[in-house]
Design brief:
This protein is an alpha+beta fold. The chain has one domain (2-114): 2-Layer Sandwich (Alpha-Beta Plaits), CATH 3.30.70.1290. The protein is 43% helix and 11% strand. It contains six helices and two strands, in the order αββααααα. It has helices at 2-7, 34-49, 75-83, 85-88, 94-104, 111-114; strands spanning 12-18, 21-26. The chain has a two-stranded antiparallel sheet with strand order 1-2. 5% of the residues are buried.
Length: 116
């Protein structure tokens, strides 16, 4: 994934996750939209993982994604948070964490359409 971000002039600063999601901190390039970047990341990483064995042949990303911006002063803190995902999600589920993000950023959502 890091090489795809680099190719799209949006370098990744931290990538980590668990079996059901990934968190990525990156610097968005000035000539690409978040939607286009996510599409390229999902497409490229799906193609790559399917070359890693037959157990990954049915891999697919969910349709949606969440994107949140932060200020430069929060980069170090967010890097530590992202790199601690496996430990963090032993205490808090991904779904509960995502609901918390949506509430904090005041994003209206409908549970029927968030998880696919």
């Amino acid at each position: 994934m890091a090489s795809i971000f680099r190719e799209l002039t949006s370098p990744s600063l931290a990538i980590d996750g668990t079996v059901d999601h990934v968190h990525i901190l990156f610097a968005l390039g000035r000539v690409i939209t978040i939607a286009d970047l996510v599409e390229e990341i999902k497409t490229g990483s799906s193609k790559w993982i399917k070359t890693k064995g037959c157990e990954f042949r049915n891999f697919h990303w969910q349709k949606g994604y969440g994107a949140f911006s932060i200020g430069q002063s929060n980069v170090a803190l967010l890097k530590r948070y992202i790199l601690g995902q496996k430990k963090h999600h032993k205490r808090v589920t991904f779904q509960d964490e995502y609901r918390k993000f949506l509430k904090a950023y005041r994003v209206d959502y409908d549970e029927r359409y968030v998880w696919d």
